[in-house]
């Protein structure tokens, strides 16, 4: 469990880093806030029509007697809402990273420079990085949709569907969040999606220790906005561990993460 604790440690250190660099934290919340407004409107509309969607999808139950009709459709409504929330948590991060790509990349570079004075660069033009980010985000949405269908189906299994499956869903959500947030620092190092998955699966507990607590925090929409800049900073520190550029949390790295060395000015959002 040491890796799990280390993953959580990187999440905490990332929040501390942006707390000590207020300009990064303040501007970093803007892409998350913009994305949140759009997601909130979509989720409110979706949940408002949940009963109609469930009734449309289960016409065979129209003639069922009370209370079985209400129990059946009520359970389906809960599963549907949980599935939508699962999708929203995962895709919220992907969309936010796309909206704030220039800023979050500069934030990640600043964290690297604060560690050892250097920051790896991909050498790719901005449009190329945006295209790679969009392509990987689409691949992620497809994977998340497949997992959502699976969890929705498993939710019907008695007992397990109401206990073990939600816990498993949070673990999967946490892994996806770590995969997304580390993409910025790893892309600057030339590591694409397939290799990124291999690296994170090789340190699965480290990935879960970072992502699962974040998934729990992201259940509160405004909390997600406040934590997003620190999550990017913490993911950069985690990447340095994955690539062997720094000592793991708790080790003597010789250069504290909170030191500041030549932070570049934040770029304008576009």
Largest sheet: none
Helix fraction by DSSP (H/I, runs of at least 4): over 70%
Overall body shape: elongated
Question: What is the overall pLDDT average?
Answer: 82
Count of distinct strands? 0
Order of helices and strands: HHHHHHHHHHH
Report on this model:
With 270 residues, the protein is an all-alpha fold. It is 74% helix and 0% strand. The chain has eleven helices and no strands. Helix 3 packs across helix 4, helix 4 runs antiparallel to helix 6 and helix 5 crosses helix 11.
Note the topology:
Layout: H1 2-20, H2 22-48, H3 50-57, H4 68-99, H5 101-116, H6 126-154, H7 164-181, H8 183-188, H9 193-202, H10 204-217, H11 221-242
Quick structural overview:
This protein is mostly helical.
Question: Any key phrases for this structure?
Answer:
single chain, mainly alpha
């Amino acid at each position: 469990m040491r890796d799990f604790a280390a993953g959580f440690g990187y999440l905490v250190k990332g929040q501390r880093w942006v707390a000590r660099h207020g300009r990064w934290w303040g501007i970093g919340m803007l892409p998350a806030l913009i994305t949140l407004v759009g997601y909130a409107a979509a989720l409110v509309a979706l949940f408002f029509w949940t009963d109609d969607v469930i009734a449309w999808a289960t016409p065979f139950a129209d003639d069922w007697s009370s209370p079985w009709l209400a129990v059946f459709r009520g359970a389906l409504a809960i599963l549907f809402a949980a599935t939508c929330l699962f999708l929203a948590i995962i895709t919220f991060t992907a969309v936010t990273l796309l909206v704030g790509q220039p800023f979050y990349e500069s934030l990640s570079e600043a964290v690297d420079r604060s560690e050892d004075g250097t920051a790896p660069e991909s050498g790719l033009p901005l449009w190329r990085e945006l295209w790679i980010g969009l392509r990987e985000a689409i691949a992620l949405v497809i994977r998340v949709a497949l997992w959502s269908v699976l969890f929705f189906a498993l939710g019907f299994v008695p007992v397990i569907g109401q206990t073990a499956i939600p816990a498993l869903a949070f673990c999967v959500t946490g892994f996806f969040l770590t995969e997304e947030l580390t993409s910025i620092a790893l892309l600057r190092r030339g590591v694409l999606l397939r290799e990124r998955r291999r690296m994170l699966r090789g340190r699965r507990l480290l990935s879960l220790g970072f992502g699962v607590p974040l998934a729990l925090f992201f259940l509160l929409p405004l909390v997600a906005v406040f934590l997003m800049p620190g999550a990017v900073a913490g993911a950069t520190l985690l990447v340095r561990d994955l690539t062997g550029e720094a000592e793991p949390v708790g080790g003597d790295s010789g250069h504290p993460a909170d030191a500041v060395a030549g932070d570049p000015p934040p770029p304008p959002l576009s």
